[in-house]
Design goal:
The structure is a homodimer of 293-residue chains. Chain A has 293 residues and is of the alpha/beta class. Chain A has one domain: Alpha-Beta Barrel (TIM Barrel). Chain A has eleven helices and ten strands. Chain A has helices spanning 22-32, 41-47, 49-59, 77-97, 116-137, 160-171, 196-199, 205-212, 246-255, 269-272, 276-291; strands at residues 10-13, 36-40, 62-70, 101-105, 140-143, 190-195, 216-221, 223-224, 236-237, 262-264. Chain A has an eight-stranded parallel beta barrel, surrounded by seven helices. Chain A has a two-stranded antiparallel sheet with strand order 8-9. The A-B interface holds A 109, 113-116, 120, 147-149, 151-153, 156, 158-159, 161-162, 165, 200-204, 224, 226-232, 242-245 and B 109, 113-116, 120, 147-149, 151-153, 156, 158-159, 161-162, 165, 200-204, 224, 226-232, 242-245.
């Protein structure tokens, strides 16, 4: 279907082709020549973990990230322990799929709660408990700040600056002394995921991207379209459909030292209702139009 | 209807009783014993400016703020000039209604634009052009940061920190040298409006409220309920209905030195469909339950 050669840094995030299983999405990327894929755990489970890992091996498509760990906030200790356990499994799945990036969507307020500071402490505690095992498995944790409109129900981590504060709290400051020893970027256990849809509005965005530097473990793109639909989750558009200057943010991210994939992640009923191969073709076209050098 | 005495610092923002004209809202406050009212210009126009000002005089209800000036962003010079003109009229209306606070909702991106930095410059320019006339009329401009989900279409001013940066840019830093002379809090021409609904998620909220100090010219309250409805504008609830610890924010605002009204502003179809007197009764009840000392 696509006559264009796919860009070398382009990745599909499999949430964009939600009706596909992981196996179908990997095969779709292989057909389209898209070299990377960010996978969601539910889609991996639908295809089977072993089979998905095999398919990654045979197609040569690389897994840019696994979505998602996190959701550390819970009303009681039992719930918080279950979340930690689930994150340890996610770390193992990431390792098995050959990616060193596990994206964390950290969780909103527990039902009925108004204790935002308390929920944020649960998140910091949760990441600190998962990080040592992740490091041991060679998987890095990418804290993803979500748009503040998801603060109540999906992520109390709302800004890139806050995500970096958390990463530094758990992982130590880069090049700073940790147990008396310096720490190089290659040793990073905890970093951040930057998604244009979630961070584009932030007046501190470019300064925080510069601060993030090598802590940027994943870069996701999607556009902001208005009006927002109900629940606000599915209001995204292809790059170029909306109000975000995606190129400007991509340039900042590159300038900060990020050299990894650009993952296209779009939650949109309209996109989901489009045949997957057609969506992948649009990804390549839009990348060429808005993001290729 | 209300057996409770209304708290001395409570104000209705007339958007909460959207089906009422300004005159009806003022009369409703007088009946309920609510001492303050934040008025919207469209409702004032519906009742007539003169008649509204007379009613304020005769009922003794005080105008806590006028909503709203702003919307400085426009695709062309003509549009931006028209916005300035409209803001000068809003300043005059505020003065005539006996309030010294004009709330600014600064405007989103012009249609089709992705130039966020450019839109933010338009806002700074617009406020700078309105401020001298406002100062002359004894009206202070309260920059209201809106929730970042409104960045594209209603306000490129998204955080309290950003609003304060803007206020300081236009108005000079408090106690700092302006033209060689110090500047006291009483001389403030530009400040901010803090609305719990818009700022509650901000990890820097309490430090920015402390920084704001006497620049807080208005304090509005409303609660965050989930799920968000389409367009996200009408998803608010009465204090206590949702996820915001309104009391904690009110305490911060008081600690920063704010002594003015607490205006209840709720955009909600459910609240709008409720008879106004009943809504005012709920305002008083919730204030007593969640905000009274």
């Amino acid at each position: 279907m696509s006559a264009l050669p796919a860009p070398a840094r382009l990745a599909l995030n499999s949430a964009t082709t939600k009706r596909w299983s992981a196996a179908e999405a990997i095969e779709g990327c292989a057909r389209a020549g898209i070299p990377g894929i960010g996978l969601w755990r539910d889609q991996v489970a639908a295809s089977g973990l072993e089979r998905t890992a095999d398919l990654i091996w045979t197609t040569g498509v690389k897994v840019s990230s696994l979505c998602r760990g996190g959701f550390f906030t819970a009303a009681d200790e039992r719930g918080r322990r279950a979340a930690i356990e689930d994150n340890l499994r996610a770390v193992e799945e990431a390792a098995q799929l050959g990616t060193d990036v596990l994206i964390l969507v950290c969780g909103g307020l527990p039902p009925g709660s108004r204790d935002l500071a308390g929920a944020r402490r649960m998140v910091a505690d949760g990441i600190a408990q998962v990080a040592p095992y992740a490091e041991q498995q060679g998987v890095r944790l990418a804290i993803e700040p979500l748009h503040p409109m998801f603060c109540a129900d999906r992520s109390v981590v709302c800004t890139l600056g806050q995500a970096l504060d958390l990463a530094e709290e758990v992982d130590g400051v880069l090049d700073g002394p940790i147990d008396g020893a310096g720490r190089a970027a290659g040793d990073l256990a905890v970093g951040v995921a930057v998604d244009t849809y979630h961070v584009w509005w932030d007046p501190q965005l470019h300064e925080q991207i510069a601060r993030a530097g090598r802590r940027i473990l994943a870069f996701q793109v999607g556009d902001w379209t208005v009006p927002l639909p109900a629940d606000a989750l599915l209001g995204r558009g292809h790059v170029g459909d909306g109000h975000i200057d995606v190129r400007e943010i991509a340039d900042s991210v590159a300038k900060a030292g990020y050299t990894g994939y650009t993952e296209v992640e779009i939650f949109s009923q309209r996109v989901w209702d489009t045949p997957g191969d057609e969506t992948l073709h649009t990804l390549i076209e839009r990348y060429e139009e808005y993001l290729a050098s």
